[in-house]
Amino acid sequence: MARPVFGRVRAAGEAGSARVTHLDRDRALVEEARRDPASFDALYRRYLAQVYSYAYYELGDHHEAEDATERTFLAALANLDRFEERARPADGDGASTFRVWLFRIARNVVANQRRGRRRHPQAPIEAAALVADPLDIEGGAAVRDEAAAAWQAVGRLPADRRRAVVLRFVEEMSTAEIAGVLGRSEGAVRVLIHRALRTVARDLGRDGRPR
Amino acid sequence: MTLFEREGSEVEALLTDRYLERVLARATGGPSSGPVDALLNPVLRDAADQLRRDLVRVHPSFRFEERLASRLAEAAAALRMPTAVGAEGGVVPIGVLGGASLEGDDGDDGAYMFDDGELDRRELNRPLLIGGALTSAAISLAGAAWVAWRTRPARRGSAMVRAARAVREARLAAVHAGRLD
User: Fold this and answer.
1) Which end of chain B is more exposed for a tag (fewer CB within 10 A), N or C?
2) Cβ separation B44–A194 shorter than 8 A
3) pLDDT digit string (tens) for B12-55?
4) CATH dotted code for A20-121
5) With an 8 Å Cβ cutoff, is A129 touching chain B?
6) Per-domain boundaries in chain A
7) Which residues of A touch B10 (CB under 8 A)?
8) pLDDT tens column, A111-132
9) What's the ipTM?
């Protein structure tokens, strides 16, 4: 059962008065899903693309990403009663401990799947085409090349750095959320991302050194 | 790595973190530049900008989305608990004898007076939950039998016979109400 957690947030320019806010932006949806499991659909729709993207970046294959996504959501639905909200006032209004919990499940599912096949993810080149402008063929090709290079550089990172980068750039998670998903301290996550950026910069030839 | 280098690395990690906060906030109308930008290594800044641009979120196919939605709906339906044990059954009134109260005619206080000959004249006006879960009906009948046995010491036969008779009477009462066959 979720702890009833409320935080007092002082809005900018609001002197002396404080408003009470829910700490977890998904609280209402989670409570509704607990009352009626059919309502889980709202949480599913909200996080489908995020979970799928994470799985896709980790596994590099649409079918495997679909499989991991399916397992993640089925496990989340079956274990929703075990979810415990742990939002802190410091996490701010947009924090979702449900998202962190969901991604922890996804991380385990993906890790199991990767363990099963023992193969590094392929850089999904076709996905890089998504960011190119279809009307600008020449420019589009350059964008595609650059995107593919970025994907490949991220794919070559050690697993913990790659996960941190994907959660930061693709899922747009805060450092605190990433720390929750990876089970690391916030300081450790900052260092992981910093090192990953250094490696990617070197890989992309941005540091002036020859690749 | 020396302590100085380590601290320098942590400071740079912190600067990178601040920069990324701002880069990610740009999409939601955040400021386009911040005070720490100049302090951060431009190589890291460029790499962060490129990853921000190129690492797009990938959406699954619509077909997959709907298929999984159906699968989750099925799982949710399976998870949904029954309304309540026994709540799907009806309330069947099993009455004490018409005209008779809970007081027995032989003077036994609180005795249920079920008499085979008088059964058709009895009004079934005492509610008892029957139906729904089998166990709850069985417990109800057993409970009625126990009460009858405890409160009818004057009837003939052994305790077991009286209990069996009471069960039979309760069952007949239910049949009379047309709810149990």
Assistant:
1) C
2) yes
3) 888 888 888 887 777 666 666 666 677 778 888 888 888 988 88
4) 1.10.1740.10
5) no
6) 20-121
7) 187, 190-191
8) 998 887 755 555 454 555 454 4
9) 0.76
User: Taking a C-beta distance cutoff of 8 angstroms, is the pair A24, A84 a contact?
Assistant: no
Among B40, B51, B68, most A C-beta atoms within 10 A, so best to mutate, is B51
Q: What would the pLDDT profile of B81-140 be if each residue is shown by its tens digit?
A: 655 555 555 444 444 334 433 333 444 433 333 344 444 444 344 333 333 333 444 455
pTM higher than 0.80 for the full model?
no
A4, A14 contact by CB (below 8 A): no
Average pLDDT value over all residues in chain B? 65
- Please tell me the distance in Å from A209's CA to the nearest CA on chain B: 11
Task: Tell whether A169 lies on the interface with B, counting CB pairs under 8 A.
Answer: yes
Write out chain B residues lying below 8 Å of A121, CB-based.
Answer: none
Separation in Å, CA of B66 to nearest CA in chain A: 10
Residue numbers in chain A where pLDDT is lower than 70: 1-23, 86-96, 118-141, 143, 206-211
Among chain B, residues having any CB pair with chain A shorter than 8 Å are: 9-10, 12-14, 16-17, 20-21, 24, 27, 43-44, 46-48, 50-60, 64-65, 68-69, 71-73, 75-77, 79-80
**Minimum distance, in Å, between the CA of residue A17 and any CA atom of chain B:** 25
Instruction: Give the separation between CA B76 and CA A32, rounded to whole angstroms.
Output: 13
Q: What is the pLDDT of residue B76?
A: 93
In terms of Cα–Cα distance, which of A8, A118, A122, A141 is closest to A63? A122
B31: tokens are 């400021």
